[in-house]
Write a structure and sequence with these properties.
The protein is 37% helix and 29% strand. By secondary structure, the chain is α/β, with parallel strands linked by helices. It has a domain of 172 residues: Nucleoside phosphorylase domain (Rossmann fold, 3-Layer(aba) Sandwich). The chain has a 5-stranded mixed beta barrel with strand order 5-13-12-6-14. Strands 7-8 form a two-stranded antiparallel ribbon. It starts with a helix and ends in a 5-residue tail after the last helix. About 8% of the residues have low confidence.
Length: 280
């Protein structure tokens, strides 16, 4: 009798160990990470996750599940470069993602960009990382604390993801909206996105960002996340939807266009996820 009980216990321990080992192997798979600054920017993505489960790391809540059949982890970082870099570091360190996608809204700088248009960054830059002299401001970069090598001023989006997305631009159905008695159909373009710890609502600052960086859009997180991904050799892409024109009406425009702009950005992300190769 005792031998039977002992054998049963050993079998239970074996099956529990086998299950735990397989679960651990599953969790060690490299998911695609999708980050946004605040919940409105990624809600549509979270709502579309299958088999979603919550994982909390360092106080930050991550939601892991399946999106378009792909293993993904989704989180919002908080607003600003420091919050974004902190969450990105936790993401890269814990999940070892195969790719990182940052999405959400941005202010449009160029006159041909309208609210709910999409800008996919070819490259991004921290516009507030500068040498400041009496008569000029010169952008510069910093050394990685990991390698000691100097980081670039501009961080390029991953060329593979960028090309896949560009090939799929025609498939993406962006949500339109009415302006007076007309319907505006948003467009998708590639460009340069500037990042800094300031909400831009100034024509003077807009012109500075255009002249200095040839920037098409401005926001508060993307290039900080790009720097983390660059330093940890993780593929990265930045996708933003225009919510305002970074002028004196920026606050009002964000309230008006936040939902449509966020949804359009999420539609682009979903198309990218669908089009990425299936992980092994």
């Amino acid at each position: 009798m005792k031998n039977k009980i002992l054998l049963s216990l050993l079998l239970i321990i074996f099956f529990l160990s086998f299950f735990a080992c397989n679960l651990e192997r599953h969790e060690l798979k490299n998911p695609i990470a999708i980050l946004g600054a605040f919940s409105d920017e990624i809600k549509m993505l979270e709502d579309n996750l299958e088999n979603a489960r919550i994982i909390t790391i360092g106080g930050i809540q991550f939601t892991r599940g399946l999106l378009e059949g792909k293993d993904v982890v989704v989180a919002y970082t908080g607003i600003g470069k420091v919050n974004a870099a902190m969450t990105a570091t936790l993401t890269v360190g814990y999940f070892k993602p195969s790719e990182v996608i940052f999405t959400g809204i941005a202010g449009g700088l160029k006159s041909d960009l309208k609210p709910t248009d999409i800008v996919v960054a070819v490259k991004c830059v921290q516009h507030d990382l500068n040498y400041v002299y009496d008569d000029s401001v010169i952008s510069y970069s910093v050394s990685s604390p990991i390698t000691g090598k100097v980081n670039p001023v501009f961080y390029k989006s991953d060329s593979g993801m960028l090309e896949i997305l560009k090939e799929n631009f025609p498939k993406i159905q962006l949500k339109s909206y009415e302006i007076g008695d007309q319907v505006y159909q948003p467009k998708i373009m590639t460009g340069i996105i500037a990042t800094g710890d300031a909400f831009i609502a100034s024509e003077i600052k807009k012109e500075e960002l255009i002249n200095r960086f040839q920037a098409d859009a401005v926001e508060m997180e993307g290039a900080a996340v790009a720097q983390i991904c660059y330093q940890y050799n993780t593929p990265f892409i930045l996708i933003r939807s225009i919510s305002d024109s970074a002028d004196e009406n920026a606050d009002l425009d964000i309230e008006k266009f936040l939902n449509v702009a966020s949804e359009n950005a999420n539609r682009v992300v979903i198309q990218l996820i669908e089009s990425l190769p299936q992980a092994n």
